[in-house]
Write a structure and sequence with these properties.
alpha+beta, 10 strands, 51% helix, globular
C-alpha cells in the first residue's frame, strides 16, 4: 500500500479557537468514530456512546447560546465540524445535524423560561433529540400533516403518526409539529415532547439501503399529553418555525454531503496511487486523473457554496435560497463523487472490503432528506420567478 495518507482539508477558519475545535473533532473522529464505522454500520448498531462523548466535548450545541450550554460558534464553523464527522461516519454527522435541528425551535422561538428549563440539558447534558415533521402521507407536502394536538385545560393531547424520524425510538426529546387549527400551514403548532412520555411508541426501524446504524422509525402518538408549557411559540406558528429550522438543517445536510464526498475522494486517490496495471499506478492514466480532478472540483465547489450560505446566516441576512442551492448541489455532488469512487476501485469498489460502496449507498439518502432535491429546485425557482401561477 502507498504510504501517502489523505491530507486534512485546508480550512479557512475565523479564529484560533475554531482551529483548535476542528483539531479536536478530527482527533475524536480518527480515534472513536472511523475505526468502528464499517463494522457497526454493517451490524446496524447505533453508537449512542459516541453522541454522549460529543455532548461531553461540547459538540452537540455548537451554534447555540453559551448561556444555555451552547458553543456560540458561527455556522461557518459548526458546518465544518459536521463535515469532518460525516467524513468519518455519516450516522454521526447527520445525527448531530438532526439533534441541532431538534433544538432549533426552542432556541429560536421558546420563552426565556422554557429555554432556561430545557436547553442546558438539550445542548450539553447528554440528551439526544429528533425532529418530527414528516408523516406517512405528508412528506414534501408537509403543510398537509394530520397529527392532531387538542387542548384539554392546561395540556395538549397529541394523536397521530410521524414517519421517517431519525433517532426515532432512541431520542430523549422530540420537536413535534401537530395540527391545532384549520387545514394548511397556519393551523400547525410546535411542541417539545419528552421521549419517555406515556402513549408515545416507536415502530420497528426501517430497513434501509444505507445508514443502517442510524435508526429511522415511525412514531405513534396515542393520546400523548404534554403541558402547555411545552408548546413552542404561538399557536399556529409551528410551520414558520419548521421552515426556519429546515433552512438551517439543509446547510447541515450540505456539509454532511461534502464530508461523504471527501471521504470517497480520499479513498479513490489512495487506491489509485497504490493499484498498478500495465506496469504503472492507475493514477498515471489520464482518464482516471481527469475523474479525480472532477471529483475534487465538485467537492471544493460544494464546500464554498455551503460556507457562503453559512456566512449569510451568520451575518443575519436571508439565506433560504442559498441553503436550497447548497443542499441541492452538495448532495448531487456527493452522489456523483461516490459513484465515481466505486468506478475507480473497480470490482473492489463494489465489495464491502472497501468503504466506497457504503459511502455511495449513504450518499443517496442525502438527496432525499430534509426536502428532496426536486423540492430544492422548486424553492430556488420561487426565489427567482415567484410562486407558481397554476
Amino acid at each position: 500500500m502507498t504510504d501517502r495518507a489523505p491530507q486534512p482539508v485546508d480550512r479557512q477558519l475565523p479564529t484560533e479557537e475554531s482551529r483548535d475545535l476542528l483539531a479536536l473533532v478530527r482527533e475524536i473522529a480518527q480515534r472513536e468514530i472511523r475505526p468502528r464505522a464499517a463494522e457497526e454500520e454493517d451490524s446496524g448498531r447505533f453508537p449512542r456512546e459516541v453522541f454522549t462523548l460529543l455532548s461531553e466535548a461540547g459538540l452537540l450545541g455548537l451554534p447555540y447560546d453559551g448561556s444555555f450550554g451552547g458553543g456560540e460558534q458561527p455556522y461557518e464553523v459548526y458546518l465544518q465540524v459536521l463535515e469532518e464527522l460525516a467524513a468519518a461516519r455519516l450516522t454521526i454527522g447527520l445525527g448531530v445535524s438532526v439533534h441541532s435541528l431538534a433544538c432549533h425551535g426552542l432556541a429560536g422561538y421558546g420563552s426565556k423560561e422554557q429555554q432556561s428549563a430545557h436547553l442546558p440539558a438539550m445542548l450539553g447534558g447528554g440528551l439526544l433529540g429528533a425532529y418530527c415533521l414528516s408523516e406517512p402521507a405528508a412528506g414534501s407536502d408537509a403543510a398537509s400533516l394530520t397529527t392532531k394536538a387538542v387542548r384539554d385545560g392546561d395540556e395538549w393531547v397529541i394523536t397521530g403518526t410521524k414517519a421517517w424520524i431519525t433517532h426515532g425510538g432512541v431520542a430523549d426529546f422530540y420537536t413535534v409539529l401537530a395540527r391545532t387549527g384549520a387545514p394548511g400551514p397556519k393551523g400547525i403548532t410546535a411542541f417539545l415532547v419528552p421521549g419517555d412520555v406515556e402513549g408515545l411508541t416507536a415502530a420497528v426501524p426501517e430497513k434501509k439501503m444505507g445508514m443502517k446504524g442510524s435508526p429511522t422509525a415511525q412514531l405513534h402518538f396515542d393520546g400523548v399529553r404534554v403541558p402547555d408549557s411545552r408548546r413552542i411559540g404561538e399557536e399556529g406558528q409551528g410551520f414558520t418555525i419548521a421552515l426556519a429550522a429546515l433552512d438551517a438543517g439543509r446547510l447541515g445536510i450540505a456539509a454532511c454531503a461534502v464530508g461523504v464526498a471527501q471521504a470517497a475522494l480520499d479513498e479513490a486517490v489512495t487506491y489509485a496511487l497504490d493499484r498498478k496495471q500495465f506496469g504503472h499506478p492507475i493514477a498515471d492514466f489520464q482518464g482516471l486523473r481527469f475523474m479525480l480532478a472532477d471529483m475534487a472540483t465538485k467537492i471544493e465547489a460544494g464546500r464554498a457554496l455551503y460556507l457562503a450560505a453559512a456566512r449569510l446566516r451568520d451575518a443575519g441576512k436571508p439565506f433560504s435560497r442559498q441553503a436550497a442551492m447548497a443542499k441541492l448541489f452538495c448532495t448531487d455532488a456527493a452522489m456523483s463523487v461516490t459513484t465515481d469512487a466505486v468506478q475507480i476501485l473497480g470490482g473492489y469498489g463494489y465489495t464491502a472490503d472497501f468503504p466506497v460502496e457504503r459511502l455511495m449507498r449513504e450518499a443517496k439518502v442525502l438527496q432525499i432528506v430534509e426536502g428532496t432535491n426536486q423540492i430544492q429546485r422548486m424553492v430556488i425557482a420561487r426565489h427567482l420567478a415567484g410562486p407558481e401561477t397554476r
